Amino acid sequence: MNTLIVTAHPESGSLTHAVAEAIADPLRAAGGRVEIADLAAEGFDPRFGPADLAVHRQQAAPPADVLAEQARVDRAGRLVLVFPVYWWSMPALLKGWIDRVFSNGWAFDFRPGAPLAKKLGRLRVQLVGLGGADAATYARHRYDDAMRVQLEHGIFDYCGVRAAHSTLLLDSEGVPGAETLARAAELGRALAEGGADGASRS
């Protein structure tokens, strides 16, 4: 299965980028094609502007940069989003990528008075968030549940994705980086072996 890994972190040497590579390595070793999209390095514009609103209203075709990102997703059977957790969600750069790329007419079809058509049923999605707080903090405040409802259900289920799962690599500021990378590599191996996405959900 071809995999597109999308990262959103301003530093190329960050743990986020290292996690993305740790996930990618077992997928490549298993013979899969892996593309990594570094949104910060590539300068993707996350701002949802008038042109994007026209796309949503089905008054215009998507801009060239959005079409290029949609083509990337179309080439992949699996999408992996790797991101630091900011304010119990994803960074604005990655959220803006979703806002613009998962557009009306491509990810779903919405027209007033007509049934919603969900168009991404073929896609598998793995969300990998790196959180600074520990698992007890997430559990106590139910941040993990809130993120899953927001991201898995609120975004990907709306588009028809039947297999969207989350893995949180927590306490990233307290746990040694090698341990976090080992967990990321384990996730990559599970994906390469075709196991259930999101096997590690904490």
TrEMBL record:
- Key words of the record: Oxidoreductase
**InterPro entries associated with the record:** Flavodoxin_fold (IPR003680), Flavoprotein-like_sf (IPR029039), NAD(P)H_dehydrogenase_qn (IPR051545)
Q: Where is the Flavodoxin-like fold domain?
A: 1-184
Do the record's keywords include Oxidoreductase? yes
State which residue ranges cross the membrane. Answer: none
* Record-linked Pfam families: Flavodoxin_2
Q: Does the record's keyword annotation contain Cell wall biogenesis/degradation? A: no
The family assignment reads: Belongs to the NAD(P)H dehydrogenase (quinone) family.
Q: What is this protein called?
A: NAD(P)H dehydrogenase
Q: Which organism was this protein described from? A: Bordetella genomosp. 1
